Amino acid sequence: MSVALKSVITETAQSLEEMLTSLLGEKVLPQEVARPERLLEAMNYAALSGGKRLRPVLMVEAARLFGHEDEGTLVAASALECIHCYSLAHDDLPAMDDDDLRRGRPTTHKAFDEATAILAGDALLTIAFDFIAGEQVHPDAAIRLRLSQELARASGIGGMAGGQMLDLASEHRDRTEAEIRQLQAMKTGALIRYACRAGAILANASDDDIARLTRFGEIIGLAFQLADDLLDLTGDAEVVGKATGKDAEAGKATLVSLLGESHTRQELSRLISEADELLAPYGAKANTLKTLARYIADRES
Which family does the similarity line name (predicted)? Predict the structure, then answer.
């Protein structure tokens, strides 16, 4: 990772942590009755567990590409990150992927208990829509409604949750390349696609620009999953921050298992070239997004 990109990621991640800490505080909001201490603690544990915050960074940088940068974008990015973190807390449960380690520390159900981890995930999911509906996100209620609806679709049956269902159904079963690509576009790609698209929407970008950033998000979503699959195959658990080799053990369908490591790396290279071409019209303003795309493809954790 270049020094410049590391600085961007670190700065955005720190700003997001501060925003999440404020949003997930003890203050009881209007129409809330109380915030149970243990549930709030588990929510903070799941949401404030470090990580590079790639989805929020993508949203912030997509908005910045079109000259939009404010606290509202961070609130919208916080909503997205709550959705992502809820999915991790649930994905780690024994009934799902059964993981004990996440980002180098005990998973939420190991740090607390299974019931609390489930409720923490439920609460992070629902509070995300509280955040995205707030006036601070954007003065135009129509924009907030659009962001809310698209976030629901990216995270629900036609997006992440549906992709997770397809992933579970794929264990120890043969899948075609088209089926695996669809699964990955939903399970991993949908929220990354949303991050890039939402940044452009927040900036009131043109329909053509939103479409271009949407395609960029689709490419980066697939690249992220391919890199993840390679890490599971070849990565070191201490570096990756979670157990590796679990895809093969569970008999999960991945493009790496179907096409092989060499072909997968060639596909990653092709995707990054397409991402560069998509962003070429924006010139130097898109350098951070281009560098992010390369980093996502080449990452080691």
Answer: Belongs to the FPP/GGPP synthase family.
